[in-house]
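Batch job 17 of 40 flagged for manual review because the log was empty.
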Amino acid sequence: MSYLLKRIAFYLFTAWAAVTINFFVPRLIPGDPVQALITRSRGQMTTDAVQSLYVLFGLDKNTSLLEQYFSYLGQLLRGDLGLSFTFFPTPVSEVIGDGLPWTLGLVGVTTVLGFLLGTGLGTLVGWRRGSWADSLIPITTFLSSIPYFWLGLIAIALLTGPDSFFPASGAYDPGLVPGWDWEFVGSTLRYGLLPAFTILISSMSGWILSMRNMMVTVASEDYVTVAHAKGLPERRVMVGYAARNALLPNVSGFALSLGFIVGGTLLVEIVFSYPGLGLQLFQAVGAKDYPLMQGIFLIITLSVLLANFLADVAYLALDPRTRREG
C-alpha cells in the first residue's frame, strides 16, 4: 500500500509540473498570438478590443505572470482550456472533444489489438523457439522498423483508386450526418480499415519481437525448469510461469503506447486526412493556435501519466515482489 501511495504522490507532483510547463511554454514562444490572430483575420480593431482579446486569452499585460498562472490553474479546475484561435470562438475543449473519439476509435483499438495479438504470437514463437515459427522473426523485424506513415503511403498507392473499396482519405462518406445509424457506422469502418491496418501491422510486429526475445530469456530460468520437473502441464508452465514474467517489461511499453493514444499517430492521420487529435495538432502548429496546442499537449501528458500509473498497478498484480516492503 505504501508503494502505491508513493506512486500516487509522484504522479500528482509530475502532473503539477506538466501543467506548469504547459503554462509557460506558449509565453516563451517568440511572437504575439493575439497580434497573429488579428493579422490572420485582417480585422481592424480598436485598442479596447485588442485589450479584451488579451484578457480573454489570459495574456493581459496589466496582470503579473503569477496572477496569470493562478488564473490558468483555476480555469483548468473548471475544465476550461481556453478558446481556439483557428476555430474562434469555439472553446478548445469542444475542438478536442470533436477529434478525441476519432483518435480513440482508430489508434486506441489498433494499439490494444496489436498488443494482444503481438504478445500472444510472441509467446508462442518464443516458447517454440527453433521451430518453423522462427522464420517469421526477420519479417517482423523488417515490419516493426518501417514507420507507420510509410506503410500508409504504400497502402494508398497499392490499394486505393477510383474503383477500390478502400478510400484514400477522410473518415466517412461526404454528405453523411454523424450518428449511430448503420450507414454512417459502415462508412466509418470502411474508411478506418486502411489506416488501422497500417498501424496494426507495424505495432504488432514490434510486440511479437520483444515478447519472443523475453520468452527465450525466461524459458531458461530455474523456476521454469522446476515447473517442468513437477510435471505441470506445458500450457500452464508457458502461461503461468514463463509468459507472466516475460510480460513485465512489455507492460511499461504498453502503458506508454496507451498514453500516446490520445496524441494519435500524427503522420498516419495526416497521410489519411483522418480527423483525430494528431491532425488537429498539425493544423494548430501551422496556424500558431497556441491554446489548442496547449490543450492537446496537456491531454497527451496527463494521458501518459495515467497510463503509467495503471502500469504500476498492473505490476502490483503481476509481480509479488513489488508488494513487499524493502
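Reviewer: the log was empty due to a logging misconfiguration, but the result itself is present. The chain has two domains: 2-77, 93-323. Unflagging and moving on to job 18.
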